[in-house]
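Duplicate of #3305? Posting structure anyway:
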């Protein structure tokens, strides 16, 4: 198939690369000429495990091209995917102006029947608006279909999520685009479900909100665990063995973040409100998430008392492991709040330090994770990077002026931390150590 992807952000770039990987001819379009040049020269603007190899392989095989011309992408392809940002606005709604602009650009370049696929995360009924827009602005009066095809990839695991999806969701208004969409996705070997456009749009918002709800649920349970001495990981393991519940996304933490869950929750609440439904359940999910961060900071303050001039080491700046993305990162929020209290920070992240520098101006960025604790009053774990589990704990204990660790991601075993002589406070598990 000849495919064009408009927008080379996380979703667009990985989608384009993976479409080429299964044999399609792909053009990736971006209006940022510098980014297009970087990609044409074999560079890569984001860190995503495995992506560089896939990009290189398909560029050299001649299946993947980059351009800043939307017209070129539209003219040369049968199926055009829109993967541009849909950023949040102050009232929780979504800014759809990039989608609208791209829809107009596509309509101006159409030279025959095209399938226009919305891949960006959008509120229900956006497909209808895209369709109206193309109809209004398309001077060539050619036929087209608008399709909704939400993306379920996780940052940090994007290539494998895309190559081996649990399911592919395709919302259509007529039968005409069905066969072509099937051909696009058949090589991935996943179940493909066809729905109407509104249902496909809702599947995305409802899925992300449900996953966020699952995290807030276990975080609420972690508060009860804290109050009773129960262990939230054992509770999650026990719950997760029920196939109806499942263990994934039941890791208690200092809260979820990133460019998707917080934004999609707000957008879903907002569109529900516009449609006359007060989605109180999801407002509670947001409240629990904010409270979880407050509670974690309170643990730190209750232990260290005055934070002014205290030296604190923080491991983790990205919003989760395996990414350099710091957008809406709980780790960054934590650092900023500690700094506001007057704490002096030494920070480290395996990938996100460059992007974090602008957000944490006064912090000291440390290259080696084992050196972060040097001279600190306490060490905080803020992101669930696997490699933090390999921290040299003996060395860290000696480096700290007091062996205190706050673990916002439950990476270590409390019994082991106690044996090593730490005062160790985590999430939803009894604290150990201390005098
Ligand atoms: C999320 C969804 O998981 C994807 O399916 C979706 O495609 C994507 O949003 C999107 O809409 O584009 P992502 O934001 O990349 O993916 O990251 P997740 O792995 O879902 O993690 C989100 C946040 O939840 C992170 O801050 C993570 O640390 C936190 N989390 C996750 C927990 O606190 N506990 C868990 O058990 C799982």
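Output from current build:
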């Amino acid at each position: 198939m000849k495919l064009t992807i408009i927008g080379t952000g996380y979703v667009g770039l990985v989608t384009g690369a993976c479409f080429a990987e299964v044999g399609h001819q792909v053009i990736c379009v971006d209006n940022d000429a510098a980014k297009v040049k970087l990609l044409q020269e074999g560079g890569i603007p984001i860190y995503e495990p495995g992506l560089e190899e896939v990009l290189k392989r398909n560029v050299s095989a001649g299946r993947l091209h980059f351009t800043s011309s939307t017209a070129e992408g539209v003219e040369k392809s049968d199926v055009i995917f829109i993967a541009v940002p849909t950023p949040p606005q102050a009232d929780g709604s979504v800014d759809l102006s990039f989608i609208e602009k791209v829809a107009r650009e596509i309509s101006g370049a159409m030279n025959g029947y095209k399938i226009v696929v919305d891949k960006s995360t959008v509120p229900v009924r956006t497909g209808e608006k895209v369709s109206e827009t193309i109809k209004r602005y398309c001077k060539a009066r050619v036929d087209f279909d608008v399709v909704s095809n939400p993306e379920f990839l996780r940052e940090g695991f994007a290539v494998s999520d895309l190559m081996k999806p649990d399911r592919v969701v395709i919302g259509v208004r007529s039968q005409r685009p069905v066969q072509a969409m099937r051909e696009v996705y058949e090589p991935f070997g996943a179940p493909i479900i066809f729905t109407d456009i509104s249902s496909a749009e809702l599947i995305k918002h409802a899925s992300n909100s449900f996953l966020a709800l699952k995290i807030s649920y276990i975080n609420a349970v972690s508060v009860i665990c804290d109050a009773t001495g129960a262990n939230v990981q054992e509770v999650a393991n026990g719950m997760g063995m029920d196939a109806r519940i499942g263990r994934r996304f039941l890791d208690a933490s200092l809260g979820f973040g990133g460019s998707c869950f917080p934004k999609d929750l707000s957008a879903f609440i907002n569109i529900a409100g516009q449609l006359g439904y007060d989605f109180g359940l999801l407002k509670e999910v947001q409240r629990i998430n904010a409270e979880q961060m407050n509670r974690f900071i309170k643990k730190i303050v209750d232990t260290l008392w005055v934070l002014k001039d205290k030296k604190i080491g923080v491991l983790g700046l990205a919003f989760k492991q395996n990414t350099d993305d710091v957008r809406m990162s709980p780790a960054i929020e934590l650092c900023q709040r500690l700094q506001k209290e007057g704490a002096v920070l030494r920070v480290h992240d395996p990938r996100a330090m460059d992007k974090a520098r602008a957000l944490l101006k006064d912090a000291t960025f440390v290259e080696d994770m084992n050196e972060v604790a040097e001279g600190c009053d306490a060490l905080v774990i803020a992101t669930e990077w696997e490699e933090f589990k390999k921290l040299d704990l003996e060395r860290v204990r000696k480096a700290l002026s007091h062996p205190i660790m706050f673990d916002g991601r439950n990476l270590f075993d409390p019994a082991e931390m106690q044996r090593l002589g730490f005062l160790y406070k985590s999430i939803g598990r009894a604290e150990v150590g201390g005098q």
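Confirmed duplicate; merging threads. Residues 197-228 form the longest helix (32 residues). The pocket of uridine-5'-diphosphate-glucuronic acid is lined by residues 121, 151-155, 208, 211, 215, 249-251, 253, 256-258, 260-261, 319-320, 384 (CB under 6 Å).
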